Here is the input.
Amino acid sequence: MAKVSVIIAVHNGAATIGRALESVFAQTFTDFEIVVVNDGSTDDTAAVLAGYGNRIHVLSVSKGGASMARNAGVRASSGEYLAFLDDDDEWMPQKLERSVPVLDHEPECVLVYTLGLKVDQQGRVTGSLDGQATGSESPTVKEMLERPWNVVPSQFVVRRDVFERCGGFYAIACEDRYFLLQAREHGIFRCVREPLLRKTPRPLYPTILDREARHDGFLRLMRERYGDSAEGMITGMVRSRVEILKHVARVLMKEGRTMEARRCLARVIYYEPTSPRAYRKYLKTFLPSRVSPPTRQREG
Here is the structure.
């Protein structure tokens, strides 16, 4: 049995999955297995994965989203520790070598994460990934509920038994945040303060709107589980989401895509129903627009 099970969920990632896999093969820690879950891909992902033969275990499922795919991958794996990698992300060679000993030597530690870098589609570093994990490396549940705190799955390695006790990833938006809250109830976190992940953010539109119903589900789940204690975190997350929706709407308006901008601004009104400015921006989408030179969408 491998020490670490590396779980990669992929949907239409034929162009990127090879880079992700090569970053795993390049690990200096080698006691791992790789389970790739092909989440209903309709491109050449299956053919690309077949080229790796028995170096990886491939599980094909109907499209159910990243959470369900990751959970399926965990069920098909056997490692004591679980490490997750998105199909368009890359680990630095020492990612597992630095992470595994922390769990080995600290029984009270249930999850270890590393720092990360944001890179664009050309592989150029554009910033740090660590703005959502400021403050304590292992905030208490109370602190995590007071304001948003997060690391993405590609950053962390978690004990299998803890993952199972948490019930895996829920099929909601912000599933990583909810999982981290549950995991913190079982023990402490540790941070390896090295940038051992290269994260490629994906375009925000239309994903941000596609996830809105699941985002509402996340907020309901938080209130059901944590009650009023979660209001600080929820307020911070809603504020951040509104700012992202406004940013995307501005970009779409500059590109002359008024109908798409209108959809984003309708969600802003949903979150800010008493804001006159939100209504003015929404009504502006019905006016004739001039197309500006293309503006690059912020990625997330």
User: Anything to note?
Assistant: The chain has twelve helices and nine strands.
